[in-house]
Amino acid sequence: MLVTLNEILKETREKKYAVGAFNATDYLLGEAVIKAAEEANVPVIMMVPTPAFKVKQTPYLMQFILDRARKASVPVCMHLDHGKDFDIVMQAIHYGCSSVMFDGSLLPIEENLEKTKEIVKIAHACGVSVEAEIGHVPGSKNQPATGAPDESMYTDPEDAVMFVKETGVDALAVSIGTVHGAFVGEPKLDFDRLKKIREMVDVPLVLHGGSGLPEEDFRKCIELGISKINFFTELATAVSRAAYGVMKEKEGNIMWPDVSPTAEQAGIDAVKEQFRIFNTQPLHLN
């Protein structure tokens, strides 16, 4: 069933678990993520990244994933990941996303606040949840950050309090030392900062840049109040390696229908492993 971010995160803090958020950049990944959630009987957040809205196939991919989400036997939130401009966010709402992220983290805080307020007003009128970001999580899948980010990028707890109060956002992404893409070096997260933010802010907190963190870091983040964890790089890598393994074994003498089931299963297994690490629990909605 299709649900909002508010609905899917409502029990996370009380029950000490996080809901995984996984990018669906194509049909295979979308199906793998939802199948994994159905097999594990847990909620899941399906994310569509901003670049996916800039290709001709977008309407067809969105139609497929939204239809699959509505028919799923578990709660599924359809979420825009890192919408950096107003038009992309409005497009996501128009397509039927039940949640959107406006990422103004590289803007001056005053501009981030004002644009977020405007998007929250429109999205809430449409029954859509909104995630925003204070501080900045650097890197991307194509340009990984080298080591931990500079602390100037970390979320200031006082800014977080002000931002949530002024904008009315439903979830807040925080920067505590993670990076997007494959982590280079050893992660060193600022758990004290996370604890302070959690004590001061009452909306669900989001961790971006999950790939590369050890299991104990994930669990400590959840214990300290993280409700949503974005995870893509290691998922995409697992699927690619599985497909490559089949093609290498057959020396390339193989067709895609013989490869895709193995690739999809690798995606299912990778997602289910994160459910275990995140301690994700079944969610029963009225």
How would you describe the overall organization of this protein?
The chain has eleven helices and nine strands. With 286 residues, the protein is an alpha/beta fold. It has one domain (2-278): Aldolase class I (TIM Barrel, Alpha-Beta Barrel). It has an eight-stranded parallel barrel, surrounded by seven helices. Strand 4 (76-83), helix 5 and strand 5 (99-102) form a beta-alpha-beta unit. Helix 7 runs parallel beside helix 8 (191-200). The longest helix has 23 residues, at 256-278. The protein is globular and about 60 Å long. The mean pLDDT is 90.
Structural class: alpha/beta
**Rough shape?**
globular
**First-to-last CA distance:** 12 Å
Q: Care to count the β-strands?
A: 9
The portion of residues assigned to helices is 40-55%
Strand order of the largest sheet: 2-3-4-5-6-7-8-9
Please, how many domains? 1
Radius of gyration: 18 Å
The fourth-level CATH homologous superfamily is Aldolase class I
CATH class: Alpha Beta
CATH topology: TIM Barrel
Topology as a string of helices (H) and strands (E): EHHEHEHEHEHEHEHEHEHH
Largest sheet geometry? 8 strands, parallel, barrel
Average pLDDT figure = 90
Give the low-pLDDT segments.
none
Q: What would CATH call the architecture?
A: Alpha-Beta Barrel
State the helix count.
11
What fraction strand? Answer: 15-25%
Task: Kindly summarize this structure in a few lines.
The protein has helices at 5-9, 12-15, 27-40, 58-71, 86-95, 109-125, 157-167, 191-200, 215-223, 233-249, 256-278; strands at residues 2-3, 19-23, 44-49, 76-83, 99-102, 129-134, 171-174, 205-207, 226-230.
